[in-house]
């Protein structure tokens, strides 16, 4: 029977990496039962790359994907990019036996400008062709803003229809936040997705005890921003149907992620999510 591999998006553990180091952080990930990680928002210093490699070997953790920007998020912003550090990024992939690379987000200056976005996507498509020569596939991670419509068509669909090599890393929480059915949408991207972010979608509590109702603007700001990133099983998404749709559509790695844990220890959040996925019947995907 066909199976996927469940892993962790390490963005949510970046503070743990700072505190414990990459090796000990990954040891803890393996103790929770996860044996795949996507590396994001962790500086790829020689020390970190070496620690990640050692941990992947010692704890049998597959490096599912690394992250890379095509160009700086803002002009002059520091950090590695494919435009200026192509060889270094390819070498990191080779060192860590990883053949998936993912772009985390649009450059901030492109958001809201279709022409700038399409120009950026053109560069990403070009990079996808260059990386393919090294056996590396490039994926673009989506949020909710790609569901803005231009002439009645989602921006994300426009991007898909104007690229052939670039793949997509869909994030089910952000699809839901965009008002789109994640199960159906994942199916539409069959053949273009190998990486899927699993993240639940919860309506948070509103504490009105300290609220001054004279300031209704403040109340409505709170009222309309109650959506939270949730541990799997603690929100409203039909995760079983999402995972099955992902598997049918070519997803290889199902990566657990939570952008904000609201003060809860991220390891605890990952444990809650892992237990829920086991309960859904995916224990042998670890």
UniProtKB/TrEMBL annotation:
<dbReference type="InterPro" id="IPR013022">
    <property type="entry name" value="Xyl_isomerase-like_TIM-brl"/>
</dbReference>
<dbReference type="GO" id="GO:0016853">
    <property type="term" value="F:isomerase activity"/>
</dbReference>
<dbReference type="Pfam" id="PF01261">
    <property type="entry name" value="AP_endonuc_2"/>
</dbReference>
<protein>
    <submittedName>
        <fullName>Sugar phosphate isomerase/epimerase</fullName>
    </submittedName>
</protein>
<dbReference type="InterPro" id="IPR050312">
    <property type="entry name" value="IolE/XylAMocC-like"/>
</dbReference>
<feature type="domain" description="Xylose isomerase-like TIM barrel">
    <location>
        <begin position="27"/>
        <end position="259"/>
    </location>
</feature>
<dbReference type="InterPro" id="IPR036237">
    <property type="entry name" value="Xyl_isomerase-like_sf"/>
</dbReference>
<keyword id="KW-0413">Isomerase</keyword>
């Amino acid at each position: 029977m066909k199976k996927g591999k469940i892993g962790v998006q390490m963005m949510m553990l970046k503070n743990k990496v700072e505190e414990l180091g990459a090796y000990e952080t990954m040891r803890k990930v393996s103790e929770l039962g996860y044996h795949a990680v996507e590396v994001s928002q962790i500086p790829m210093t020689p020390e970190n790359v070496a620690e990640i490699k050692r941990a992947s070997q010692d704890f049998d953790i597959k490096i599912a994907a690394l992250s890379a920007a095509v160009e700086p998020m803002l002009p002059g912003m520091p950090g590695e990019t494919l435009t200026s550090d192509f060889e270094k990024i390819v070498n990191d992939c080779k060192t860590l036996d990883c053949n998936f690379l993912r772009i985390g987000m649009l450059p901030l200056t492109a958001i809201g400008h279709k022409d700038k976005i399409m120009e950026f996507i053109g560069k990403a498509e070009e990079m996808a062709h260059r990386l393919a020569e090294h056996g590396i596939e490039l994926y673009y991670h989506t949020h909710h803003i790609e569901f803005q419509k231009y002439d009645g068509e989602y921006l994300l669909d426009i991007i898909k229809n104007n690229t052939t090599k670039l793949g997509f890393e869909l994030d089910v929480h952000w699809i839901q936040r965009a008002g789109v059915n994640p199960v159906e949408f994942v199916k539409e991207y069959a053949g273009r997705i190998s990486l899927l972010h699993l993240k639940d979608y919860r309506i948070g509590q509103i504490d009105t005890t300290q609220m001054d109702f004279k300031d209704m603007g403040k109340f409505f700001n709170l009222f309309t921003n109650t959506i939270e990133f949730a541990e799997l099983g603690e929100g409203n998404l039909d995760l079983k149907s999402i995972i099955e749709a992902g598997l049918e559509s070519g997803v290889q790695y199902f990566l657990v992620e939570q952008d904000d844990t609201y003060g809860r220890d991220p390891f605890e959040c990952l444990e809650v999510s892992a237990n829920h996925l086991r309960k859904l019947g995916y224990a042998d995907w670890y």
